[in-house]
Every structure is written in structure tokens, then in C-alpha cells.
Amino acid sequence: MPIPKNISVEHVIKAIEYINQSVVPDERLSTKYVLVYNDKNYPPKYVLSIANTFVNGTELEPHEFSGGVEANGFLKQLGFIIIDKLNDVIYTDIGNDAANSFHKTVVAAYNTAKTEYKYNARAFIQMISERGAVSVAKDFLARDTATTGFERLWSEKRLDLTIEASVLLPQYKVLFTVEERRTAYERLKEYGYVIQGLVFDDNTSNELAAPTFIVGEYYTRKDVYRIVNVPDAQQGGNWDTGYTRFNNDSYVFANIGTAGRTGHDHPNRFDGNDLVWFGKKGSKLLHDSIQSLIDPNSKVHIFAREDSDDPQFVYIGNGMAKSFEDTSPVNVVWQFNDPLENHPEILSEEESEPNKLVEGAVKQIFVNVYERNPIARRKCIEHHGCKCSVCEFNFSDYYGVIGNDFIHVHHLKPLYEVGKEYEVDAVEDLRPVCPNCHAMLHKRKPAFSVEELKMMIRDKEEAIPH
User: Fold this and answer.
1) Cβ atoms 282, 231 nearer than 8 A
2) How far apart are CA 139 and CA 152, in angstroms?
3) Whole-angstrom Cα distance, residue 186 to residue 184?
4) Which residue from 86, 65, 84 is spatially nearest to 76, judged by alpha carbons?
5) CA–CA distance, 162 with 106 (Å, rounded to integer)
6) Which residue, among 187, 197, 250, has the nearest Cα to 35 in the 3D structure?
7) What are the residues facing 82 on neighbouring strands?
8) Domains of the chain in sequence order
9) In terms of CB atoms within 10 Å, which end of the chain has fewer, N or C?
């Protein structure tokens, strides 16, 4: 049977997220081709099998469709990058090998277009034969508009065969500047073809990778090993004692309100959207391990848990040092503002005015900490789901995959009931609410109850003539 045409980019990304949380069966591993997404490799045929479950309800069996040309072609047309892991080399130096390989890739794409769509571009072939494909690509990217060949392939719905698409292949990143790759990306995007897993920062010349981990999801250290391909010989050690560095990225595993397994009991805590964190005993600001953490250009993946006996951590996000103190242990305040990560927002109406000291202000901020605490939020959602407790709106039902797990969390307990030693119960004290209802709950001080707001909606609906 052919691959179902109703499988979309959305379903493939869901399949990739599913695979990140599980294990690919040995018999479904790919021996030749891989789908590259966020610098990680996935077996194309298995990805499509899983993607089918999100749209048609069942996993496609391997015998129901063919891999290779069929599966790879389908995924390429959706904007996913496929490479031959046996033959494609990820080049790190500009040289003849990289340029010659790019040339072969461009010629192969042209031959496919010529065979399948009778696209005969003799001038193009002569041009790359005389000047080389890299030089021609740079010339095309310097132009303000697409070529007629590009538009011809667009009419055939095969922009994956354009020289711009070849420029964006990971093995040829070394051959082109970020601006050239951005131009290729934007030109393809303008014609409706989006290369998946690539993002360019609008404010800098940086090329960004899609997030490796999902904010709010659970991960064990073994999950992290698998996802970032940590060799067995490099596992354990510093990974088990708070923080470490691997492949130029840092990884922090924080205990919140509980002593670590090594006996260290640092007062790590959430302060609004920030995480107040302490390094290992004896750590100092001048240590290389700390310098790499606070480097503004580094990526720091931060995970946290509230029970040191629980192997699962909640992924808090890619942290950036907001402030730090040269104490021992080192104290760092982490903020989470990675534009590629989805950090559900908390409305500003709940923040106390900074220049006013009124009765209850401390309690107000204390409650806000729990509404923003990603661990408490995760527990609330696990129990109550992501449907608004007031109006029952569900973001994923309406917006699809981009709405997954998006919801605000509202604290039910009135401020006068919050004592000094109060500890939040994520199931009893928190409720998921949409941003609109969250704002309306706080239109009054003390806040309306969930039931009061639901009653207002019912009364309004009943007053409308039918």
C-alpha cells in the first residue's frame, strides 16, 4: 500500500517526540538512511510507521510500504532531511572533498528531476560543470529572486531537489555562511517548503537547532544518555553528582527541597520563573566547570526533581545565568528564555507591585512561586489534564501539536489561608486554566473561585435568547 497522504509534518514530529521517549526496536533500526532532526538520527521508515498512529490510529507494518526511495521521498517532500549514513560525511573543513561531495549531491538531485519530471536544464548543468556547484549555489543565493529552475521544481512540488535544499544539508554546513544558509531557508519557506529542524535567530547571525528536550517532560539520566548518544565509557561519574559537560553542552541535575544522594543538601528553589541553584560543595567561580556553565554562549540543559530517590527529573529548560555569586558553593540564578522552548506564561496581574509593601504581599509572591514551579505544574497537569477547569478549552484540540501541554496553572487557596510553613499540594491546590480564564479569575482580590467563574459563564449563556 502507498504511504497515507494524510500524514503531515505535525504527525512526523509527534513520532519523533514519541521515539525520543522510547526505544526503537532493533528490527526497525535503519542500516542505510537516517532522518536528521535537531542533530539526531532517526530511522525514516519507523518514523512514518509511528506517525501513522497519530492520524490513522494504527502503526504501519514494515511490509505495508517500502523504505528507501518511497519513504525518503515522502519525508523529503515534507521538509525533512534524509542522509545516507554509510556514504554521507559531515564535513568539518572546507576542502575539495566537501565541495566534490556537494557537487555530486546537486547533480544527483538534477538527474532525479530530469528523470521524473522531464526537467532538462542544460544551461544549469553547463554552469556547475564549469564553475562547480558550490560557486553556482553562492551566486544563486546572492540574487534577490529565485531562478526559473527553482520555480519549475516548485510547480512540481519538489523543492527538495533545488540547489537551495542541498545547501541546507548538514554535511555541507561548512561550505556556506550562516547568512547564505538563512537565505536558502527563507527562499524555500517563501514558496511553502520549510526545512524541519532548522531555525535562524532573527536578531543575530546564529543558526539555531530545535530543542533536544521538551520542557515539562520527565527524563532519567539513562534517557539523556540515549538521546544525546553518550558512550557507555563516559556515563556515570560527574553525570551522577550534579552537573557535567558533554559535546560542548552542559547538563545540570538539581534536587529541589531534598538532599542529593551524595548527602549535599543545598537550598535550591524556584523564585518566580527563575531557579536559584548551588554548585557542588567546594565549587568556586574560577573553576572551569562553573565558567562553562555561566558562559552566555553555552547551552545548559537543566533538569530538576523533588525526591532524590526518584530516577526521573523534569526538564526545566535551557538555562542562562541571570546572576551569580562567588561563594563556595557557587550560587547561580538561572533564567529560562530560550526562544525555541515553550515555557507556559504566567499572567502579570498576579505579581505584586515592587515598590509597594502591603499586607499579604509576601504571601502573594509565595503563591506565585508555586504557580510557576514547573515540577508542581507537571504534577497538576498529570492529574487534572490540560483542559481549562473553567471553560474546558484545550489548546491541542484547537491548535494541534503546537498546543500540546500549553495551559496556565492557578492556585486555589485564598491568601489568608497560606501560612508560613505552607507546602503546596499540586493536586488539591492547583488547577489548569486557560490564559483568558486565568486573567478573569484575578479580576477581583481575593480572586474569584473556579466555580464562581463557571457560574458567570453559565448565567451569560442562559441569558442569550435561543
Assistant:
1) no
2) 19
3) 6
4) 84
5) 8
6) 197
7) 35
8) 9-84 (no CATH), 96-209 (no CATH), 218-335 (2.30.280), 348-463 (no CATH)
9) C
Beta strands in 220-341 (DSSP E): 243-246, 249-255, 269-271, 274-278, 299-305, 313-325, 331-335
The helix/strand/coil state of 56 is helix
Q: 103 with 133: CB under 8 angstroms?
A: yes
pTM of the model: 0.52
- 360, 327, 347, 348: which is closest to 446 by C-alpha? 360
Q: Of 353, 355, 349, 347, which is closest to residue 372 (Cα–Cα)? A: 347
Give the list of residues 6+ apart from residue 426 with CB closer than 8 angstroms, or none.
376, 377, 379, 380, 383
> Residue 227 is placed in which grid cell?
538521546
User: pLDDT in tens for each of the 466 residues of the chain?
Assistant: 789 999 998 899 889 988 887 778 889 988 889 998 877 889 999 999 999 999 999 999 999 998 888 999 999 999 999 988 777 777 777 778 889 999 999 999 999 999 999 989 899 999 999 999 999 999 999 999 999 999 999 999 999 999 999 999 988 988 999 899 999 999 999 999 988 877 776 555 565 555 678 888 889 999 898 888 788 889 999 999 899 999 888 999 999 887 766 556 788 988 878 899 999 988 999 999 999 999 988 889 999 998 888 999 999 999 999 999 989 899 999 998 887 776 764 443 333 333 333 333 333 434 455 556 788 888 888 899 999 999 999 988 888 766 777 888 888 876 555 554 456 788 888 999 998 999 899 888 788 999 999 999 998 888 777 6
